[in-house]
Amino acid sequence: QVQLVESGGGLVQAGGSLRLSCAASGRPFSSYNIGWFRQAPGKEREFVALISWSGFTTYYGDSVKGRFTISRDNAKNTVSLQMNSLKPEDTAVYYCGAQRIGVREYESWGQGTQVTVSS
């Protein structure tokens, strides 16, 4: 399995920006699509963004389109999530997950990083 560690969370005012990172180790990183999800207290886990193993294809949840950008550097085994124009409703624990190519389920998850947006 690939192991994932998120970083970059914190407290930011509404309208501000944060950049989250997901660092991978273990199996070849380029064998995986990487997704970002988030979970707020009392709510279900929500899809945020996905980037394909090559980096050529990206998907975004409707609530973050136009504000968040996902990218990856396979040479550094990292995926980043640039979050701009943050809103209080973006407050959540953000998780990255690894999805092996051709498999629907996510194989591994990081421990999560807290993002808090104050109004």
What does this structure look like?
This protein is mainly beta. It is built from no helices and eleven strands. It has strands at residues 2-7, 10-13, 18-26, 32-39, 46-51, 58-60, 68-73, 78-83, 92-100, 108-109, 113-118. A hairpin with a 7-residue loop joins strand 9 (92-100) and strand 10.
- Characterize the largest beta sheet: strand count, sense, and whether it forms a barrel: 7 strands, mixed
Strand content: over 45%
Number of distinct helices: 0
Element order, helices and strands? EEEEEEEEEEE
Uncertain ranges? none
Structural class: mainly beta
Distance between the termini: 39 Å
Total number of strands: 11
- Rounded mean pLDDT is 96
Determine the fraction of residues in helical runs and give it as a percent range: under 10%
- Envelope shape: globular
Q: How big is the Rg? A: 13 Å
Please give the structural blueprint.
Layout lengths: L1 E6 L2 E4 L4 E9 L5 E8 L6 E6 L6 E3 L7 E6 L4 E6 L8 E9 L7 E2 L3 E6 L1
Parallel strand pairs: 2-11
Antiparallel strand pairs: 1-3, 3-8, 4-5, 4-9, 5-6, 7-8, 9-10, 9-11
